[in-house]
Specification:
The protein has 13 helices and nine strands. With 300 residues, the protein is α/β, with parallel strands linked by helices.
Length: 300
């Protein structure tokens, strides 16, 4: 993994950018591009036209496209800001209609699946101009009404180029992200997906599983509301997120998630053995080590 936090001094020179998906992430990226005038025109398209219209009304875009294929054929930069389950179909649209000099960027939290979709559907010249990216930015509430360029200030943008990625395209995209506030990190798609299985996807599996466990124990909602403490509410918070979105993430990154779950299961079994050993001193030592690791990470 490499890091680049330098600030670009010149614009990347994109004439027309198309953002497909005008929700929280797409709207925030659009807001940054519009505010910093990184592109001549920032165009938005969303399958839910109300999202695009709201983004336009808030100044997150310069204009709204009503035809996806026509918009794709008229721009030199396409940014996919849609759930990972929708990218396969969009890649086919891009393969058919993108301009020869277009650059394609995505923003999903699973990279290997997107790279494979592009490899299977796109001509080689276009495939070399695909830059899989993942903005590490967001908000607890989705939708263009919560989009804001400030979400990106000082946040990481992970870029996962392949060995045959066009270096000029990679440089232009990196400069664009820096102009709108991101710090750039570069890693492989494999390294990315393994990391986010551990740091995001597997913890979401645990949140859903804890909710499943309590539901199967037969605890009624009124009992939970009365007696559940912050630990339970915090740990199950992410089980309240969009099931279809997480279905797609779990499915597309299932190999890395299952690897991560196997490691977590081993750690859980080890801690269970310590709890069950009647060795209180050892248990305290283990908990102290884990407490110190947590405090060192988040308070340093």
């Amino acid at each position: 993994m490499t890091t680049d936090t330098s600030v670009a001094e010149s614009t990347p020179g994109f004439d027309r950018a198309l953002i497909i998906g005008c929700g929280l992430i797409g709207g925030s990226l659009g807001h940054g591009l519009v505010h910093h005038r990184v592109c001549g025109r920032v165009i938005g398209y969303d399958a839910n036209a109300a999202n695009a219209d709201k983004a336009l009304s808030r100044g997150l875009l310069d204009e709204v496209a009503t035809s996806l294929d026509a918009a794709i054929a008229s721009v030199d930069l396409v940014i996919l800001a849609v759930p990972v389950g929708r990218t396969a179909d969009l890649v086919k649209h891009l393969a058919r209609g993108a301009l020869a000099h277009s650059i394609i960027v995505d923003s999903g939290s699973v990279k290997q699946a997107f790279a494979q979709q592009c490899a299977q559907s796109m001509p080689e010249a276009l495939r070399k101009r695909v830059i899989p990216c993942h903005p590490i930015a967001g908000h607890v509430t989705a939708g263009p009404e919560h989009a804001d360029r400030a979400l990106m200030a000082g946040r990481p943008m992970i870029m996962t180029p392949s060995p045959d990625t066009d270096p000029g395209a990679l440089e232009r995209v990196g400069q664009m992200w820096k102009r709108i506030g991101f710090d750039i990190l570069t890693m492989s798609v494999q390294e990315h997906d393994a990391m986010y299985a551990d740091l995001s996807h597997m913890p979401h599996v645990i949140a859903f599983t804890l909710m499943k466990h309590i539901r199967e124990r037969g605890m009624r909602p009124d009992i939970l509301k009365m007696f559940a403490g912050n630990a339970f509410k915090d740990m199950t918070h992410h089980a309240g997120q969009n099931p279809r979105m997480w279905r797609d993430i779990f499915h597309t990154n299932r190999q890395e998630i299952c690897r991560s779950l196997a490691g977590f299961r081993k750690s859980l079994d080890e801690l269970e053995r310590v709890i069950n050993s009647d060795d209180q001193d050892r248990l305290e030592r283990v908990l102290t080590q884990l407490q110190e690791a947590r405090l060192h990470t988040w308070q340093s």
